[in-house]
């Protein structure tokens, strides 16, 4: 890979593992200056700058811009990648499961964006939100996750037009199933006595198998690479041919039929 002509300063959240770690490593290798954020340091060796922060901790996040400025006075790209998911039914998941999902997948993103906007506007840079195909196709027993990613995408679109006159580009990328630690980190709640038990078990097993055999994390890097070299990047990019096809079907097929297919795959 040829080194970049103009190195950018790029912040990647959720950089300790999975998609975020791969992105941070590859972007740094490509010649950019990368700052990765997560609660725990990556286990594998890494070459980017790492800042430890729980993105749902308001006080810790408020200190991030100053910590960042010590590494670089400039910030060109923010990749909002940190995310989590719960597996289980709306009825039986703990009371705070939806709050916790929204806290990281939506509210923490907004908080960090607002803090970093002065720097991003100065650079006429990019904000890239990591959404999901599950934001367009509501997955039963991952309803909170799907709802959070749908909210994130609408947020991203609104922000894009607000920032347009400042030259800031806002994009959502929507990976399909990707090999990462997401399955292992998904908190799944279901009990043997539950009337949902077998359906949740089947649904989560299918989801985990899909993620295991999913795309490699570098598929996301390839898309990011293109976005940050484009003056006018698309509003959103779905990653993976089969997922682009799914999105097309979702647009043209009757909603009831799409719901029927989702039930067969993940709800039955
Ligand atoms: N894998 C897939 O199939 C897939 C598909 C579509 C979209 N996505 C999206 O891609 C993004 C990355 O997911 P992944 O698959 O790479 O998952 P992952 O392997 O579980 O990585 C999640 C990252 O988020 C960080 N994180 C979690 N809670 C945090 C917090 N409170 N503060 C700071 N960092 C936190 C984790 O680090 P620490 O635990 O060290 O904090 C980790 O680095 C997510 O937004 C996910 O929704 C994934």
Which key features would you list for this structure?
7-stranded parallel beta sheet; Rossmann fold; two-stranded parallel sheet; binds NADP nicotinamide-adenine-dinucleotide phosphate; globular; 268 residues; 10 helices
Give a description of the structure:
There is one protein chain. The protein has a single domain (9-267), classed as 3-Layer(aba) Sandwich (Rossmann fold). 48% of the residues lie in helices and 15% in strands. It has ten helices and nine strands. It has helices spanning 18-29, 58-62, 64-71, 97-123, 143-163, 182-185, 197-212, 218-227, 241-252, 255-267, and strands spanning 9-13, 33-38, 49-52, 77-80, 86-87, 126-130, 169-175, 187-188, 236-239. The strands form two sheets. The chain has a seven-stranded parallel β-sheet, sandwiched between helices. It has a two-stranded parallel sheet with strand order 5-8. Helix 1 (18-29) links the parallel strand 1 (9-13) and strand 2. The longest helix is centred in the middle third of the chain and has 27 residues, at 97-123. Bound molecules: NADP nicotinamide-adenine-dinucleotide phosphate. NADP nicotinamide-adenine-dinucleotide phosphate binds next to helix 1 and helix 6. The site of NADP nicotinamide-adenine-dinucleotide phosphate has 29 residues, from helix 1 and helix 6.
């Amino acid at each position: 890979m040829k080194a970049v002509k103009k190195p950018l300063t790029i912040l990647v959240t959720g950089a300790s593992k999975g998609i975020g770690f791969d992105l941070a490593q590859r972007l740094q290798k490509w010649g950019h200056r990368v700052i990765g954020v997560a609660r725990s340091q990556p286990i594998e060796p890494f070459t980017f700058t790492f800042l430890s922060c729980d993105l749902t901790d308001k006080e810790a996040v408020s200190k991030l811009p100053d910590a960042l400025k010590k590494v670089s006075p400039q910030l060109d790209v923010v990749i909002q990648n940190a995310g989590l998911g719960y597996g289980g039914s709306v009825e039986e998941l703990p009371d705070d499961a939806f709050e916790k999902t929204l806290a990281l997948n939506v509210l923490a993103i907004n908080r960090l964006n607002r803090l970093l906007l002065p720097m991003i506007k100065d650079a006429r840079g990019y904000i890239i939100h990591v959404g999901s195909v599950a934001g367009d196709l509501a997955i039963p027993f991952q309803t909170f996750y799907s709802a959070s990613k749908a909210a994130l995408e609408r947020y991203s679109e609104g922000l894009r037009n607000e920032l347009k006159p400042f030259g800031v580009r806002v994009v959502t990328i929507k990976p399909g199933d990707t090999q990462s630690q997401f399955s292992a980190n998904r908190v799944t709640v279901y009990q043997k006595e539950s009337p949902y038990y077998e359906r949740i078990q089947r649904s989560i097993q299918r989801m985990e198998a899909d993620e295991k055999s999913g795309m490699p994390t570098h598929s996301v890097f390839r898309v990011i690479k293109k976005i940050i070299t484009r003056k006018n990047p698309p509003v959103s990019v779905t990653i993976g041919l089969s997922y682009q096809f799914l999105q097309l079907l979702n647009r043209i097929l009757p909603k009831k039929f799409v719901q029927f297919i989702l039930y067969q795959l993940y709800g039955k």
